[in-house]
């Protein structure tokens, strides 16, 4: 009896090491705040520095003009901007359906061994350096077609998008409660309609985020394009010909010895960031949840 | 309650011995309705472990049957078997025969069967990305009904049926998840009856609801059995007594007793049933 009373009162007594605990507490909290700041700093820095260095070369001509020959002032990256848009769009046409459908199959239909195999392989694939993906596309498309092409570049970007989209689709579909699937099936709705109209629709927000991440990553990739789409200083939208792209153009301009090319590379980087941002924004607006603000 | 008790006790004694003669009494009482759901030696096992075994149970058209029993006794398993819901679970095995509307369910296509046999679940599960209206007509819409006028009629009808119309008629376009839990469950019932089933299975439909919502659902079940055959799993003995015509008591995967609800709660045949009903275990 006495013991319990003592325990009881000890809760209110001042612990001996209170001072030390308070110090540890505030130190750890401080470190966490610092870490949080460090994690957002690079983005702000990149955005600030790119804007500062690139804004001076950014004008209407940059969007509408072709690159000028060495030594001539002015010119733009119209071909690179269009090239990146074409490459990323075609890459999405390959990557999004494959990724989403693979994710659906893995979560909704297959169980066990094959599903685990797919998960493992997509995880490994997402860790494969993008330049290796480029070499792969070189092997299966560029060599048989005997030349660099838009198709090869898009293929490489598409492959790059697949693992991200597959994994995110899978994760998002897993979050859809089983009870919704059952509710739909119990209404006499077939399995595929349930998957499409209930499960996919419920998970759409997260899947779209995943797709946007994949697109943003693909848009900024240089390595897989180096020996697939190759780059092109001239205007081309031919799918069988090499095509310009912003990242490759930025890379070429940045390693050149000319000051005005450096500035243009900065402008290109800024445009690339803005491009990804705008695509993000448009997709978000188009696919926004009509109930988002009502619940 | 006293009156009822006397009434039951005055029934012929031989009635208590067998389920079949008992059914005859009910038949007389309910105008000789046909059997809507029958199971013969129905067994379900998961991973080789039996969940229910050899269930023989016959339910008449337009009656409400309560299924009671302690947790894990196989009530839900039984209910879900009637709707092919075990299809979704790998390594589940269903044996025996289920006869719905005089046809063995092996004669039905799974999807068609589920249109006849609707189900309401324990937790209200409206489709989150759909409005109230869309939820009610979702079954019809997903099966290809695009007739706007017809859908509007069905929605109004079903919501009235589910006793929800007055509460939601001005907010049909709002998301279903903005409704309260009890309203959501009535919405789910409206959604179920929208595809015009003959049988409605309810798996503890009120266990996640407050007493007032529960009362509304119970009243609803009482009204719905005029048109539908209802099987309701419940943990709440009073609820079984209030809403059902017949009660089946499951224990450890077996059907222990099946008889008229009034008799079950006043004069059960089996000792086990009596002990469960009086709260000695479970």
Structure characterization notes:
The complex is a heterodimer of chains A (295) and B (282). The model of chain A has no long low-confidence stretch (mean pLDDT 88). Chain A has two domains: 16-57; 60-286, MetI-like fold (Orthogonal Bundle), CATH 1.10.3720. Chain A starts with a helix and ends in a 9-residue tail after the last helix. Chain A is mainly alpha-helical and 295 residues long. Chain A has helices at residues 2-10, 18-54, 60-64, 78-109, 113-127, 130-145, 150-175, 178-186, 191-219, 223-226, 246-254, 259-286. Chain B contains twelve helices and ten strands. Chain B has one domain: Rossmann fold (3-Layer(aba) Sandwich). Chain B has 282 residues and is an alpha/beta fold. In chain B, helix 8 (181-194) packs parallel to helix 9. The two termini of chain B are 24 Å apart. A six-stranded mixed beta sheet of chain B has the order 6-7-8-3-9-10, sandwiched between helices. A four-stranded antiparallel beta sheet of chain B has the order 2-1-4-5, with helices on one face. Chain A binds chain B through residues 111-112, 177-190, 193-194, 197-198, 201-202, 204, 289, 291, 294-295, and chain B through 83, 85, 88, 90, 111-119, 121, 123, 125, 127-129, 131, 138-139, 142-143, 174-175, 177-178, 188, 191-192, 195.
